[in-house]
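Deliverable D2.4 — example input (structure tokens):
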């Protein structure tokens, strides 16, 4: 089955490069004036197996479409182009929760494309690493086992290893929620609170992730896998993470490039609203939502988290 990637950002381009090891891949983007070298991945030239196009109708002739679009842009894209996406295998790579609907990408896809086979590709990965051919392992979540096995074979390469799971909810929420905790970890380091405080934020943040995800039906072991703990570890400890760098800037009181997409900021707001609706306690997510909107100071956030009632772990 032919493969196309919709979204020519850094991650979509990196996936196109990696998957082209298995055969021809089409990469679609609204702006492809850069030709064979995406400025978001400097120094990396697209292989000949990758065809770049701005023609969405042509790109969607492929049977398998990877939706490499920002989480907050996915809903509008689906609604606008629903007629081109029906009866396809649609694989979302978005890591976020829609602010309007308070749902993940798979639910948005299912509502607009009810006949599509839906999967989620997520896990610890930086676009630059994938594009350079560095070994990477990801989670492929799909409720239909035969489709999951076919996609696993289709998208895995000698340096891109996919593990499959039927737990779409867990994989999707792990990828979304870790961005929120990565912002918090960045704040801790930017404010000079130290590595011990970062370890505490990662650990308690993971507890929040698991609390929400399992409440919504996810398997705890999914959160402990690549799409949860694995991705959380990566994004909370590397400056390659945009969410971590955004948090660092908040912690230092510095401005952050407004042109840079920070999925965790919007997701923090969505998570906070969802947690309130469900009656769940998610103090780190709530603080990240306030900090990212200028509704609290770093000092206030630290005091709030450190003076909460003492309890068992």
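Example output (designed residues):
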């Amino acid at each position: 089955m032919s493969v196309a990637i919709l979204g020519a950002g850094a991650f979509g381009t990196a996936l196109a490069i990696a998957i082209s090891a298995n055969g021809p891949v089409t990469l679609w983007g609204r702006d492809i004036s850069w030709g064979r070298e995406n400025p978001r991945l400097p120094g990396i030239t697209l292989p000949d197996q990758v065809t770049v196009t701005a023609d969405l109708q042509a790109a969607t002739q492929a049977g398998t479409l990877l939706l490499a679009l920002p989480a907050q842009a996915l809903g509008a894209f689906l609604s606008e182009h629903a007629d081109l996406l029906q009866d396809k295998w649609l694989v979302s790579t978005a890591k976020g929760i829609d602010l309007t609907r308070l749902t993940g990408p798979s639910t948005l896809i299912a509502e607009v494309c009810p006949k599509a086979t839906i999967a989620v590709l997520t896990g610890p990965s930086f676009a630059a690493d994938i594009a350079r051919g560095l070994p990477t392992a990801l989670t492929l979540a799909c409720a239909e086992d035969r489709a999951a096995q076919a996609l696993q074979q289709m998208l895995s390469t000698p340096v891109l290893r996919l593990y499959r799971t039927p737990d779409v909810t867990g994989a999707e929420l792990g990828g979304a929620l870790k961005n929120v905790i990565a912002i918090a970890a960045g704040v801790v380091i930017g404010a000079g609170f130290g590595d011990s405080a970062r370890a505490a934020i990662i650990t308690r943040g993971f507890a929040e992730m698991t609390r929400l995800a399992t409440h919504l039906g996810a398997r705890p072991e999914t959160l402990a896998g690549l799409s949860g703990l694995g991705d959380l570890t990566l994004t909370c400890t590397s400056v390659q993470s945009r969410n971590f760098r955004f948090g660092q800037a908040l912690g230092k009181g510095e401005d952050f490039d407004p042109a840079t997409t920070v999925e965790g900021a919007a997701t923090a707001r969505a998570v906070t609203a969802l947690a309130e609706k469900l009656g769940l306690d998610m103090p780190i997510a709530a603080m990240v939502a306030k900090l990212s909107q200028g509704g609290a100071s770093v000092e206030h956030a630290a005091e709030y988290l450190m003076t909460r009632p003492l309890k068992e772990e």
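The two ends are 48 Å apart (CA to CA).
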